[in-house]
Each structure stands twice: as structure tokens, then as C-alpha cells.
């Protein structure tokens, strides 16, 4: 399979399926995040984010990105933002009203870069 990265960890695949399954039920989604997503290793979380972007599941990818941002190991990374913005543009989800938009992502990036410069 040229050009495709395969996710080999079963737990990461399970998380992708669960996030997609519970995307419309906020209560179940939060419970799933606490019980499964937060347990993933750093590289598995990034792999889940990349796979959701590849599948154009941008709202779920944005949620995963926000989970990653809360990790103590996270530092603002222009490449993670770039990939998410490209996925948002491809899916034409610029303004869907659910907090899943480029403007909020760009604003958050600028704010995080500004605060890290002045901290």
C-alpha cells in the first residue's frame, strides 16, 4: 500500500471507531474520551489525529487536536495546525457553527504563540 500509513495499534483503531460512533452524543463521547482516548500514548494520539484528518472527519479531528493540546508534553506545532487547516479547507467546514472552523483554530494558534513568546 504505497502512500498510506497504516495504524497498527489496535487501541488507536478502536479509538477512531469510538470517536466516530459517539460524535453525535456528547455525554457518551466525553465518557469514551476519559476511558480510552486519554490512555493512548503520544504517538498513537497523533496517529489518530492524522487518520481522522485523512478521512476528512474534521470536527472529530479538531476535538482530538484539542485533547492533544491539553497534554503536558504538547508544545504549539505549526505542522499540526497546518494539517488540520488543510483538512478543514478540504471538507469545506469553514463555518459550521459547532466550533469546528478555521477561524477558531487560527485564533487559538495565534493566541498560543503570543502567550508562549511573552511567558
Automatic annotation (TrEMBL):
InterPro entries for this protein: THA8L-like, TPR-like_helical_dom_sf
Organism domain of life: Eukaryota
Name this polypeptide is given: Uncharacterized protein
Organism field: Vanilla planifolia (Vanilla)
